[in-house]
Amino acid sequence: MRFRLQRKQLCIPYVLFLILFVIIPILFIVYYAFTDSNGYFTFDSLISFFTSTNKLNVLIQSLLFSVINTIVCLVIGYPIAYLLASSKWKASYVIVMLFVMPMWINFVLRTAATRDVLTWIGIAGGNHPYIATFIGLAYNYIPFVILPLYSTMLKLDKTQIEAATDLGCNRLQVFTKSIFPQSIPGVISAAQMVFMPTMSSYVIPETLSEGKIVLFGNSIYIGFSNNQWNSASFMAIIMLLIVGITMLVTRNYTEKDAKGGSSRW
Amino acid sequence: MVKKILSFSFLFLILILMYVPIFVLIVFSFTNTTYIGDWNGFSLKLYVDLFTDQETMIALGNTIILAVISAVVSTFLGVTGAIGAFYSKKRNRALVENLNQLPVVNPEIVIALSLVVMFVSVGNVIFHKQIFSFWTLLVGHVILAAPFVYLNVKPKLQQLDPSLYEAALDLGCSPRKALNKVMVPQLVPGILSGFMLAITLSLDDFIVTAFVRGPGLLSGENAIETLSTLVQAKIKKGPIPPELRALTAIIFLIVLIVVIGYTIYNNKRSTKVKKRRNY
Question: Distance from A106 to chain B by nearest Cα, in Å?
Answer without folding.
Answer: 5
